[in-house]
Amino acid sequence: MILPIYLYGHPALRKKAGEITPDYPDLKELVENMFATMYNADGIGLAAPQIGLDIRLFVVDLEPLAEDNPLYSGFKKVFINPVIAEETGETVKMEEGCLSLPGINENIDRKEKIRVQYFDENFIFHDETYDAFFARCIQHEYDHIEGILFVDRISGIRKQLIKGKLNNLIKGRVNCRYKVRASDGKN
After folding, report:
1. Which single residue of 36, 58, 142, 167 could bond 47 by disulfide (Cβ 3.0 to 4.6 Å)?
2. Which 8-state DSSP code applies to residue 179?
3. Do 163 and 171 meet the contact criterion of CB atoms below 8 Å apart?
4. Exposed, middle or buried: residue 33 (CB in 10 Å: 0-12, 13-18, 19+)?
5. How far is the C-alpha of 128 from the C-alpha of 109, rounded, in Å?
6. Where are the alpha helices (DSSP H) in 25-170?
7. Average pLDDT, the chain
C-alpha cells in the first residue's frame, strides 16, 4: 500500500521516535508498505516519521543507483531501533534532498564513516560500519528518527534563501507526483 509522505512543517517529523519490539503489530506489512511508498516516490530511503509513525524504523535501498555505481547493487536494508555508535573520518559536504522536502536540495556536512547497531526486519542484531554514500544515507534517515531534517543542518543564511519554499511546503503548496500530507492536512 502506498502511504502519504508527510511534508516539512508536519509535527510528526519533529518527534524523537521510540523503540519497537519484535511483536510490533503488522511489522512485515509496514516494512513492505514503506518500501512501496519509497519506490513510488523514486526515493532511496524512508523513515517511519515520514509516514506519521513515531517509531525507530527506516528503510534504505540503493539499487536504483547501481547502474551508475555497481557498489550499490543489492544494498536493501531495514533498520530497526538503530543507534549510530560512532562517527569518524573527515567531514564531507554533499548535496541531499528528501521526500518530505520535495524540490529542495542543499549541501550538507556529514562524517564520512559510521558504525551503526540495529535490528533487521527479523529482529536479528547487526553491528556494521559504513562509509561514503552508504554512511550518508543512513545518517540522513537516522536524523528523521531523531526529529531532525537535513535543512536543520544548513546555515541560517541558506535557510533564509529557501524560506519561501519551506513556507509553501508547510501550507501544502507543492506539486508532487506522489501522495503527501501537509501540516494543515492538505493533499
Report:
1. 58
2. -
3. no
4. middle
5. 21
6. 27-40, 132-145, 156-161, 163-170
7. 96
Q: Tell me, yes or no, if 141 is annotated catalytic.
A: yes
Q: What is the pTM of this model?
A: 0.96
- Domain 5-181: CATH architecture, name and number where available: Alpha-Beta Complex (3.90)
Cα(142)–Cα(130) distance, integer angstroms: 13
State residue 140 phi and psi, 5-degree precision: -60, -50
Backbone angles phi, psi at 145, to 5 degrees: -75, -10
How far from each other are the two terminal CA atoms of the chain, in whole angstroms?
Answer: 17
CA 140 remoteness from chain centre:
6
Neighbours of 152 (CB within 10 A): 12
Q: How far apart are CA 114 and CA 39, in angstroms?
A: 25
pLDDT digits (tens, 9 = 90+) for 63-112: 999 999 999 999 999 999 999 999 999 999 999 999 999 999 999 999 99
Catalytic residue selected from 32, 87, 121, 141: 141
Tell me how far apart the alpha carbons of residues 46 and 99 are, in angstroms, rounded to a whole number.
8
